[in-house]
Amino acid sequence: MASEMEIETLPGAGGEHELDLGNLLVAHYRDPVTLSNGTAMSEAERDVEYVEQGRNLVQVLVDRLFNMPSTVDKTGRLVTLPKPSFQLPREKPLPKPRPMTKWEAFAQTKGIKKRKRSKLEFDEGKEEWRRRHGYKRVNDENDIPIIEAKAGDEPGEDPFLKLRESKKERVAKQDKNQLENLKRAAKQGGKGALPSTLQLAATSLAVTGGKQPGQKLSKNDLGDAAGLASTATASIGKFDKKLPGEKPAKKLGKHRKFLPVVDGQGKEKELITNVMKKVLAENDFSGLDVNKAVRAHNVEESGKPSKKVGGKKRAEGAFKKGGSRKGMAPSGKSGKKSSFGGKSGGKAGGKERKSSKR
Amino acid sequence: MRPLDEPEMTQVLEKLHKFVGSNLKHVLERPSHEGPDGKGGYVFRLHKQRCYYVSDALVRRATNVGRDKLFGLGTCLGKFTKSGKFRLTVTCLDLIAAHAKHKIWLKPSAEMSFLYGNHVLKSGLGRITDNTQQYQGVVIYSMSDVPLGFGVAAKSTQDCRKLDPNDIVALHQADLGEYLRMEDEL
User: Which of A167, A198, A203, A226 has the least C-beta neighbours within 10 A?
Assistant: First the structure.
């Protein structure tokens, strides 16, 4: 058990204190609310009290620390702290137990226990002790000098090749089984069940039936990635040897198709005339009636034309806009201005005129 | 060498239109008398970022020359810059001078100044065609009707009358002197 939290009373302030040397923690939990004479403390007094108590606590900790047995180091004294007793809460949740692999499940049902194997084995042929796995191992298949032909062997077959191929098959089978186990674990327990090295992998396993969608790379994505990688060399992949059957990299960039150089059956002529028409039409202003345009522009600028009421107003209007008024249709329905003119007359009309002048 | 595609053609024709106006039709539908049967028209071809105005028969012959060996053909109108814009060069002067709409004639005293690449001042202005708008493309001639170059009118014809003698009337774009000054860039 870790060293107990020492609880003791300090002079100078009431209450219990806890000391945990492992965490270098000293804590006092009661709030000094009342003075010794029983009245409540103010803020300033409380601050003073806190500072005082803090000093005392730190003093206690330092005293305890310096009284511990220490060794001398070149930088100074070295104290080994005891194990911490104050339990800090977990930062992350507890890891879930990994689901069993297929073999583990089978072994459990059958009651097969794991056997501890020795590192060295006696090699009968060479009569010496050799490793079980690794360099110069027992029964290394590369070391076999002669393989005798069996009754069932065909004359053209290479037994050494067969050995190598069978080894590859076994390795491949094992890898497949491992992958299946991982997939099953991920399906059952989610991503957390996988070993952390796999969790960090950029593309998560595509788990069939699982909640998370797998980020499968499509054929095109792979092709693009391969193309990018192949051009990421010093000479943009131009002089690299290609694998047999590897297609040259897809040319990037917009595909542009041009007319043939010589006489594309009048298509070029067509293009020229079309573009010419467009250019001429854009810049051709012969259809424009300048006067009409000026009138339209003036109307737009001044807002809606006001109703012509009374000779004075008309004169004023004429003074304002000159000839453009003549072209305008008599405004039956007009804007806000005209309503004043309609109702009022005389003095009021005069007032309106003043305001409009403004 | 390849024909122009639509956006490129639009750019070229718009630039030409600035100088020749509605005569663009004549330029494009000009019959050529080269070739064995004396028929055919003129086309545009792009070669090494330069646009050429060539007769059809000549294009056929030019296909026999390899791409890197071919220096040019017909009349070079101008070149496409790295950012895709089209600029007219002095080599198209003959063509646009023949079909120009707006012209400026220079006094003999101002000819040399223009041929060195300076803009045309009011003091050097001899004649100018009527109703030339501001920033209209103009072809610049000497008094003896020899085309010297082309540029852009800085002021319209009416405004030209009110200018100081040292004000710019036409902005220089290309002149014959470039054949000597910028020989390698043509």
Answer: A203
Q: In chain A, which residues touch B (CB < 8 A)?
A: 256, 258-264, 268-269, 271-273, 275-276, 278-280, 283-284
The answer to whether B140 and B151 have CB atoms below 8 angstroms apart is: yes
For chain B, domain boundaries:
2-95, 102-181
Please tell me the predicted confidence (pLDDT) of residue B111: 93
Res B122: pLDDT: 93
| Cα–Cα dist A69/A204, whole Å | 53
Task: Return the number of CB contacts < 8 Å for A and B.
Answer: 52
Among chain A residues, CA nearest to B10 = A275
Among residues B27, B152, B40, the alpha carbon closest in space to that of B95 is found at B27
**Who among A263, A279, A284 is closest to B10 (CB)?**
A279
- For domain B102-181, give the CATH number: 2.30.130.10
Of B1, B17, B56, nearest to A279 by CB-CB distance is B17
Verify whether the Cβ–Cβ distance A264 to B3 is below 8 Å. yes
ipTM: 0.86
Q: Are residues A222 and A296 in the same domain?
A: no
Best of A257, A268, A269 to disrupt the B interface (most B CBs within 10 Å) is: A268
Q: Into how many domains does chain A fold? A: 4
Query: Given pLDDT bands bounded at 50, 70 and 90, which one contains residue A107?
Result: very high
pLDDT for residue A314 is more than 70: no
Single pTM value for the model: 0.46
* Model confidence band, residue A210 (pLDDT cutoffs 50, 70, 90): low
Q: Are B63 and A272 within 8 A, CB to CB?
A: no
Predicted confidence at residue A33, as pLDDT, reads: 62
Q: A308-317: long-range contacts (C-beta < 8 A, 24 or more apart)?
A: A309/A338, A309/A341, A309/A342, A309/A349, A310/A341, A310/A345, A310/A349, A312/A349, A312/A353, A313/A341, A313/A349, A313/A353, A316/A353, A316/A356
Nearest by Cα to A326 from A337, A336, A335, A314: A314
d(CA B44, CA B51): 7
Which residues of A fall within a CB distance of 8 Å from B5? 256, 258-259
User: Has residue A259 been placed in a domain?
Assistant: no
Q: CB distance B3–A256 less than 8 Å?
A: no
Q: Which residues, 6 or more positions from A85, have their beta carbon under 8 angstroms from its beta carbon? A: A2, A3, A4, A5, A20, A22, A23
Search chain B and give the residue with CA nearest A273.
B28
- Asked if B17 lies within 8 A of A258 by C-beta distance, the reply is no
The yes/no answer on whether domain B2-95 falls in CATH 3.10.450.220 is yes
